Amino acid sequence: MPISKNIHQKSLSVLHEQLAAKGKSMDTLISQISKFQIAVPSWALGAGGTRFGRFSIGGEPRNLEEKLDDIALLSRITRKTDAVSLHIPWDIPRDVDALKQKAGDLGIGFDAMNSNTFQDYGQPRTYKLGSLSNSIKETREQAIQHNLQVIQLGEKLGSKGLTVWLADGTNFPGQSSFRNSLKWTIESLKEVYKNLPADWKLLLEYKPYEPNFYHTVIPDWGTSALICNELGEQAKVLVDLGHHLPNTNIEQIVATLMFKNELAGFHFNDSKYGDDDLTSGSIKPYQLFLIFCELISGAEEGSQNWDTISWMIDASHNTKDPLEDLVQALESISIAYTKALIVDRKKLTEHQLNGDTSSAQEILHDAFMTDVRPLVREARIRQGGEENPLDFLRKNNIRKGLIKERGKGSKASGL
Ligand code: RM4
Ligand code: MN
Ligand code: MN
């Protein structure tokens, strides 16, 4: 909701007083908020589909260049993103140098590259029964080569990471051997890892089910970590928030991974039941806050360096304007991060050590219940972003303009 400058200033000064009482400096917080940038996935700029259908939103980017234009707009109005995460082959550039040049001009970098061995797109061998875990050597080899090509492309663009998500698994008991599938996956990933540039990381996702419903080769963080340990230091676990069974304690997973310096980064989204890819913070904002609490304390207490963690959104949506959805996601993530920054960690530790359960809980609640939106808004304004990015999109008829330029039926590559 748009608010007046007067109300913004008033609420900011109330917050300033509240924070000062807790010994928190507003300027330090603002610079932390401003530094925190989240990469946008190239596949979130069009209307997402479900397996039952896809409804075009109109004005979707028709090519990679237009995807960059959309991200540049998001970047300008929110100041919360400065990079795109590409998905190959959805995003094979027509002209790599020209794309790099354009991205540079727009101030957009290339975050982790995503390989795709979960679909068939005209390659010689099908991935119907798996890719890196396939029982047929030639199919595994093809999937390895695909990942190597993604790395090569990423190197040209200046990316520093390869994200691997495997759809591999089975639908029925007995369909394959658990142990062989895991062994072949590890062998294949070792081949990929051998070719990983020294300053890259391999981000390995896990997911308990879907598209396979009996078993997934890498179902959980433990299996992902086990594989990463076999690969080496540069391989770490990527936590996609939607890739857990309902009620999983994701903040604990984050803490454990950081404890072992095994956290590669995040795919932010929200979920009610499964891999719903709903807007971050739309369903479980308290969980998102608790995750950030673990991230901040894990980094502050020296478990894992904050700068080694990658931040990406992974969402798709079939009923919202993708630009509006991404604005909302970037805002929710920044709010959760800011709330976690204002937790009185010193007091929290004291209460933990004294066994004072109620007071410990109160510390977290107090931070979570604080309305930090004026702070996030102020950070954005100071960086030259829009006071209210959502309102900006509406007032300036951005979608209407895009529909006029790109057409009503344009369809972005992706899901
Ligand atoms: C998967 C997973 C991957 C993403 C694809 C599109 O469920 O989350 O990260 O590459 O979706
Ligand atoms: Mn993901
Ligand atoms: Mn997913």
Helix content: 40-55%
Q: How far apart lie the N and C ends?
A: 31 Å
What spatial order of strands do you see in the largest sheet?
4-5-7-9-10-11
Strand content: 5-15%
Please work out how many helical segments DSSP would assign. 15
User: What is the subunit arrangement here?
Assistant: single chain
Instruction: Name every ligand kind in the structure.
Output: beta-L-rhamnopyranose, manganese (II) ion
Inertia-based shape: globular
Which consecutive residue ranges, at least 5 long each, have pLDDT under 50? none
Using only C-alpha atoms, the radius of gyration works out to: 22 Å
Structural class of the helices, strands and pairings?
Answer: alpha/beta
- Report the strand count: 11
The SSE string, one letter per element, is HHEHEHEEHEEHEEHEHEHEHHHHHH
Overall pLDDT level: 96
Largest sheet: 6 strands, parallel
